[in-house]
């Protein structure tokens, strides 16, 4: 009986890496074009400020479907929203985290939370390029240089002003 238990344990350990690698092979949940657009809008309005437009993380964590990084000791770390899965992501979005993410269960509907959990398992859409030329073309001159003040026009002690 001891040998059989040992064999079963060895077999389980041998299969474990295959089972774990299948988590990365999982496909992202399919979204309709309408769901993708709605997810993109909600993400931009509610999530991009902390997680970044490309989901690489900012003050919030990286939300790419799959990421890999090398730790200082040389070991490879892997993670991603695909590994977490829809159910776990729904809980994180609904209830927030101890790390500072707020809960959205009173802001988004259950359907929107489910949509966001599925949306962030898909590759982020590439934002359109906004070149320097595009920026300059969008500028609106409000006060021409010739009409701008050349001397202080108030009595505020500007040498003693602190602003953030």
Structure at a glance:
With 164 residues, the chain is mainly alpha-helical. The protein has helices spanning 2-25, 33-51, 81-95, 110-119, 132-138; strands at 67-70, 76-79.
Your description of this structure?
With 164 residues, the protein is mainly α. The chain has a domain at 32-127: Cytochrome c-like domain (Cytochrome Bc1 Complex, Chain D, domain 2, Orthogonal Bundle). The protein contains 5 helices and 2 strands, in the order ααββααα. It has helices spanning 2-25, 33-51, 81-95, 110-119, 132-138, and strands at 67-70, 76-79. A two-stranded antiparallel ribbon has the order 1-2. A hairpin with a 5-residue loop joins strand 1 and strand 2 (76-79). Helix 2 (33-51) packs across helix 4 (110-119) and helix 3 packs antiparallel against helix 4. The termini are far apart.
In order across it, which strands form the biggest sheet? 1-2
Helix/strand structural class: mainly alpha
CATH topology of the domain at 32-127: Cytochrome Bc1 Complex, Chain D, domain 2
Q: What is the CATH superfamily classification of the domain at 32-127?
A: Cytochrome c-like domain
Q: Low-confidence stretches at least 5 residues in length (pLDDT < 50)?
A: 9-25
Q: Specify the helix fraction band.
A: 40-55%
């Amino acid at each position: 009986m001891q040998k059989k238990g040992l064999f079963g344990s060895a077999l389980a350990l041998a299969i474990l890496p295959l089972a774990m690698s299948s988590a990365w092979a999982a496909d992202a949940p399919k979204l309709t074009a309408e769901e993708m657009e709605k997810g993109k809008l909600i993400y931009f309005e509610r999530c991009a400020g902390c997680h970044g437009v490309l989901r690489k993380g900012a003050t919030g964590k990286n939300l790419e479907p799959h990421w890999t990084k090398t730790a200082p000791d040389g070991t490879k770390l892997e993670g991603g929203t695909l590994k977490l899965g829809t159910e776990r992501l729904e809980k994180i979005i609904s209830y927030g985290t101890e790390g500072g993410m707020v809960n959205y269960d009173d802001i988004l509907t259950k359907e929107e939370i489910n949509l966001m959990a599925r949306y962030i398992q898909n590759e982020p859409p590439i934002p359109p390029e906004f070149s320097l030329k595009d920026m300059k073309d969008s500028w609106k001159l409000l006060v021409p240089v010739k009409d701008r003040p050349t001397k202080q026009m108030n009595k505020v002690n500007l040498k003693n002003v602190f602003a953030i």
